[in-house]
Design brief:
The protein has one domain. It has 7 helices and 4 strands, in the order ββββααααααα. The chain is mainly alpha-helical. α2 crosses α7. It is 68% helix and 4% strand. The termini are far apart. The longest helix has 47 residues.
C-alpha cells in the first residue's frame, strides 16, 4: 500500500513554513496550522454568532447560546457552586477540542487531537491549573484530598501514596482517552472508505456490492462526528470533576 493510501498517512506531520531559530526547528506544520484554524474558527463562531445580541436570537446566536448555556449547566453540576470563575477555562478547552476534532472530518483536514503530544499538553495544562487552584484556595490543606476522612491511622501512609499516584495518573488517562478515540476512529473510517472505493473499481459486480460498504462508511462518518462531540464533552466534564475536587476537597 502506497504512503498516500495508507491509513497512517493522514496523521503524518509535515512542515508548511520551514523556520529555524538558533538551530531549533520552529516550523509551522500542518498540525500547527489546524490549531490556528481551530482558534480562528472558534473566535468567528462566537463573535459572529453573538454580534447582534438580539432578544429573539437568530440561528447563529441560538446555536452559540445553546452550547454555552448547556455547558455552563453541565460544568456547574460537575464542578460545584464555585465553578463560575473557572468556567471560561473549561469552556475554552471544550471548544478547542471540539473544533480540532471537527476540522479533522473536513476533506484534506488534519486531526491534531489524534496526536498524543497535543492531548497530553492539554491534559497537563488542566492538571497544573487544577492543582494550582487547589493550593491557592486551600493552602497545604489541599493535601487532605489524598487522605479520605475516617481513614484508619495504620492505613494512612498507604492510602495517601495510593491517592497521590491516582491523582498523578489523571493527565495520562485524560490524554490517552482523547488521542486513542480520535486515532482509532479515523483509522476505521479510512479503512471503510478504502474498501468502498476498492469495490467500486474492482469488478463488474461493484454496483451489486457497493451499497453495503457505502452505507457503512456513511454510518461511520456520522458516528465519528458524534465521537468528535462526545470526546470534547468528556474531556471538559472530567476537567470540571477534577476542578470540583480542588474546590471542595471531596
Amino acid at each position: 500500500m502506497s504512503a498516500g493510501h495508507s491509513p497512517i498517512h493522514q496523521f503524518e506531520i509535515h512542515p508548511i513554513v520551514p523556520l529555524h531559530l538558533g538551530g531549533v526547528d520552529v516550523s509551522l506544520t500542518n498540525s500547527g496550522l489546524f490549531m490556528i484554524l481551530a482558534t480562528v474558527g472558534i473566535t468567528l463562531f462566537m463573535v459572529l454568532g453573538m454580534r447582534k445580541g438580539a432578544l429573539v436570537p437568530g440561528r447563529g446566536q441560538a446555536l452559540v447560546e445553546v452550547i454555552y448555556t448547556n455547558m455552563a449547566q453541565l460544568v456547574g453540576d460537575a464542578a460545584g457552586e464555585h465553578y463560575k470563575p473557572y468556567f471560561p477555562f473549561v469552556f475554552s478547552i471544550f471548544m478547542f477540542i471540539l473544533f480540532g476534532n471537527l476540522l479533522g472530518m473536513v476533506p484534506w483536514g488534519f486531526t491534531f487531537t489524534s496526536h498524543i503530544l497535543v492531548t497530553f499538553l492539554l491534559a497537563i495544562t488542566v492538571f497544573i491549573a487544577v492543582t494550582g487552584i487547589g493550593f491557592a484556595r486551600h493552602g497545604l490543606k489541599f493535601l487532605t484530598l489524598f487522605l479520605p476522612h475516617g481513614t484508619p491511622w495504620v492505613l494512612m501512609p498507604f492510602i495517601f501514596l495510593l491517592e497521590v499516584f491516582s491523582y498523578c495518573v489523571r493527565p495520562f488517562s485524560l490524554s490517552i482517552r482523547l488521542f486513542a478515540n480520535m486515532l482509532a476512529g479515523h483509522l476505521i473510517l479510512k479503512a471503510f472508505a478504502g474498501m468502498a472505493a476498492g469495490l467500486f473499481f474492482a469488478t463488474g459486480l461493484a454496483p451489486l456490492f457497493l451499497p453495503l460498504p457505502m452505507i457503512m462508511t456513511i454510518a461511520m462518518i456520522a458516528f465519528e462526528f458524534f465521537v468528535a462531540l462526545l470526546q470534547a464533552f468528556i474531556f471538559s466534564i472530567l476537567t470540571a470533576v477534577y476542578l470540583h475536587d480542588a474546590l471542595e476537597l471531596h
